């Protein structure tokens, strides 16, 4: 899975939360970096991204690209700002500060392989 957040402390906290729950975590400091991970690794099943990030695209743009190009990837988003509009319907949003148990529950549900 990928954790994408430009805030180092937020990214480290989320990465620890997911790795402690048994996930293999790749960290990205921007949406562009996260997209490069997807383009070189077909085994990624989950994305946890912040909405606000610098670069050529933000987290919402990343979510739209991932949903279009890799439709089986589960997408979790977080932000200290309101839910951004026009996101793919399968995106699950968690406002900051989020409850780790809620995020991990959604991650488990989204990582279940489709039969």
What does this structure look like?
- The protein is α/β, with parallel strands linked by helices and 115 residues long.
- It has a single domain, classed as 3-Layer(aba) Sandwich (Rossmann fold).
- The chain is 40% helix and 18% strand.
- The protein contains four helices and five strands.
- The radius of gyration is 13 Å and the shape is globular.
- The mean pLDDT is 92.
Short descriptors:
alpha/beta; globular; Rossmann fold
CA(first)-CA(last) distance: 20 Å
Globally, the shape reads globular
Please summarize the sheet with the most strands: 5 strands, parallel
Helix run count? 4
- Can you tell me the residue ranges where pLDDT is under 50 for at least 5 consecutive residues? none
* The CATH architecture: 3-Layer(aba) Sandwich
Count of domain modules: 1
Helix content: 40-55%
Specify Rg, calculated over alpha carbons: 13 Å
Mean pLDDT rating: 92
CATH superfamily: Response regulator
């Amino acid at each position: 899975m990928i954790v994408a957040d430009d805030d180092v402390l937020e990214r480290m906290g989320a990465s620890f939360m997911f790795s402690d729950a048994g996930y293999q975590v790749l960290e990205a400091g921007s949406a562009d970096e996260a997209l490069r991970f997807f383009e070189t690794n077909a085994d990624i099943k989950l994305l946890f991204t912040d909405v606000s990030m610098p670069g050529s695209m933000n987290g919402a743009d990343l979510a739209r690209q991932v949903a279009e190009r890799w439709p089986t990837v589960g997408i979790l988003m977080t932000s200290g700002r309101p839910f951004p509009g026009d996101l793919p319907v399968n995106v699950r949003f968690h406002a900051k500060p989020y409850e780790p148990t809620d995020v991990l529950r959604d991650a488990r549900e989204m990582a279940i392989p489709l039969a």
